[in-house]
Structures are given as structure tokens and as C-alpha cells.
Amino acid sequence: MAQKYQAVKGMNDVLPAESYQWEYFEGVLRKLLADYGYHNIRTPILENTALFVRSIGEVTDIVEKEMYTFTDSLNGDSLTLRPEGTAGTLRAVVEHNLLYNATQKVWYMGPMYRHERPQKGRYRQFHQMGVEALGFAGPDVDAEIIVMTADLWRRLGISQYVRLEINSLGNKDERAAHREALIAYLERHVDILDEDGKRRMHTNPLRVLDTKNPALQEMANAAPKLSDYLGEDSRAHYEGWKAMIAALGVDYVENPRLVRGLDYYNQSVFEWVTTELGAQGTVCAGGRYDGLIEQLGGKPAPGIGFGMGMERVLLLLQDKNLLPAQRGVDVYLVNQGEGAGLYAMRLAQQMRAAGLSVVQHLGEGSFKSQMKKADASGAAFAVIVGENEIAAGQAVIKALRAEIEQKTVAAAEVAATLAALKA
């Protein structure tokens, strides 16, 4: 017997019984994004490794431990499966000069790859939807980003299950002053740091404060706060952002230890979190990255965006029974007898041309077995043709989900009759 192959660990198939849930969620997202004036951008799954090292940061967990990187055997280039969507999107914006005398609001959706330990809501291939608003200095666009995500939760029915946390990371000089004070503080507590903390202390000290180690929480809580180092402009931006969010009716919690795991953020950062899926999990997160476009070779321009873990949102929708039932087709076409297959196929094309979804029975099968398949298909109606119907140029319409009298109608009237019965 030939070997059966399985999907790569941490990379999952989406089967027909689940794919309709994805299609529903994606449809809600596309409508939301169109309502806010965002346009789709599609970039390659593979990028040059240097792009992610430059943008995400060389000493981040993603670059150090989680990227799928390989050498191209044709030319020796180092290539990486994208671990997130912002870097590739901004690379495309810079490469194609999309910000020339213009602002841009773009969105992307697709698979990302990180070599993590697979667990509920965390996979090695996962799907991310993200937006990037480029050329806007804010804080009004920062507020609109928050309002848009809050609007999405409302449309999906999960507003009560998520919480918004926000913080300000200030500008480069303010972070440098805070970093110096933080490193000095951590050096005084080096004896209680775990190995991860010691490794990050001089390379990425902000991430030490984001520790999940319970033994380090008291030390992290007493560390110098970045908010104490914010200058007048950064503080005004942050206060303006908070005031607009509050005025627009979105509740939030300030979290001074919210730093995000990517090096390119500055000023406004945020996370939407939930505790409904076990341990607290982030379902959507983002922030401002005003220096990243210049860092990737473009002219200086502000930007803000977010990424959303689609699997995590779907898990929440499934947990709360908020996904619609799978919609069946309109018609299952039962056909039996000499010439019935071709007659039924022509009839099916007429119905499809009229906007009806039709599954035609193909191959052999008794009338009884075909009717069982019609019922199991979820179709609203069975249209039945046999030798008698062919001879008379007719078809039988039988409702499968409602108490409607069976009808025999001319073949040319089948589509119109079904449309009237559906109305």
C-alpha cells in the first residue's frame, strides 16, 4: 500500500465543512475595508531575508528563532517565507512609488509563516489580515484605526469578548533615554533575571518587561516607565489619540508594558485581547511606524497599521456560536432514464443563468438514492426529470425544506417558478 502523506506539523487544511466560515469572515472584512476606503494589495509570500531583519529587528524572537529561511539554490540569495505582512507591503509601496504626492490606505490578507510550537490559535502557517494607512501623521488616523476595529467586532457580534489596551512608545530619542535608564535598572536586578531576560537586557530591554515569567512581574512593574520619558509632542499625540477614542465611544485600558514584539513601532501602539480562549490572547494588534518607510529606502513618511490573526478570531466566533449555518444550494437536479442526463444538464444551465445554484446528479443511481442525496445536499428544491418529463418538455419541482405543493411545469418555466417560490 502506498504511503499516505500528512500536512506539515502546524500547517492545517481548511476543509469544505469549515471553508464557508472563512468565506463568511472574509466577506465581513472586505465589506468593512471598502466602507473605510482601503484598497487591496497582494505581495509575494517569499521576500529577501534582509527585508525582515531590517524592519522587524535583528534581535527579535521572529528573526532569531521563528522565520522559515533558506538559500536559493539558483543564485545563493537568502529568502524567507513572510512571518508578517507589513514589511512586504511597505516594500511594495516603496518599490512602486505609491506614496508619490499621495496618501495610501491598503489592506492585505493571506498566509504567514513562523516556526513556533503549534497550539490552539497559534500555528506555523496562519492567516493574517492587516491594514496600512500611509502618509497620515495623526492622531486622527490612529483613532480611525481603532474605530474601524471596534466596528468589526460589532459587526461580528464579539464586542463584549475583546478589550482594547493602548500605550505610547514615544519617538526615537525618548526611547533611547528610557532604554538607557531601563538597562541600568535591569543590570541592578540581573541576579533575578531568567536566561531570556539576560539575553535581551542589552539588545532589546523593552521586551524584558513583556515577560510572562511570574517570578519577574514585581521587578517589571517597578521598572522605569516609558511614559515618564515622553516629550511634549509625543505626549500631545498620545493625549489627542486617547481623547478621540473616548469621544468616539471606544473603551480602552492603558498598559504601560505594552511594547509589541517588532522593533519598528513608535508612538501609538495597541492590542485587542481576549480571555475567552483560555489564557489571554491577542486577536489584533498594531501601531505607528513613522520611520519604517525611510528605513526601507523610501522618502520619510508616517504610517500606522495593524495585523489580525484570522484563526484566533474564527476560534472566538466558533466558541460563541456566532457563525452562520452553511448555506445549501438552491436546487439538486435528479435525473433518470434515457437522455435524462443531457436534458438535465441543459436545464441546469438555464437555472444557473437565472441566478440559481444547482447541483446535478452525475452518474448512475436509482431515483430513491438520488432523492436521498438531494435531501443530504441541503438544497431547498429538487428538480426531477425522467423519460416522461423529457417527452413532455417538462420538469417536476419538489420542495425539500418547506410545505409547498409539488409542481410540474414546462422546462422553460422552471427557473422563473423557482425564483417565485424562493421569494
Automatic annotation (TrEMBL):
Reactions catalysed according to its record: tRNA(His) + L-histidine + ATP = L-histidyl-tRNA(His) + AMP + diphosphate + H(+)
Keywords annotated in UniProt: Aminoacyl-tRNA synthetase, ATP-binding, Cytoplasm, Ligase, Nucleotide-binding, Protein biosynthesis
EC number: 6.1.1.21
Family from the record: Belongs to the class-II aminoacyl-tRNA synthetase family.
Subunit structure: Homodimer.
Enzyme class per UniProt: ligase
Gene Ontology CC: cytoplasm
Record PANTHER family: HISTIDINE--TRNA LIGASE, MITOCHONDRIAL-RELATED, HISTIDYL-TRNA SYNTHETASE
One Pfam family recorded for the sequence: tRNA-synt_His
Any single GO BP term: histidyl-tRNA aminoacylation
InterPro entries: aa-tRNA-synth_II, aa-tRNA-synth_II/BPL/LPL, Anticodon-bd, Anticodon-bd_dom_sf, His-tRNA-ligase, HisRS-like_core, HisRS/HisZ, HisRS_anticodon
Protein name: Histidine--tRNA ligase
Family annotation (CDD domains): HisRS-like_core, HisRS_anticodon
Binding positions (L-histidine): 84-86, 114, 128, 132, 260, 264-265
GO molecular function: ATP binding; histidine-tRNA ligase activity
Species in which this protein is naturally found: Chromobacterium alticapitis
Location in or out of the cell: Cytoplasm
Domain Aminoacyl-transfer RNA synthetases class-II family profile residues, every copy: 1-317
Gene: hisS
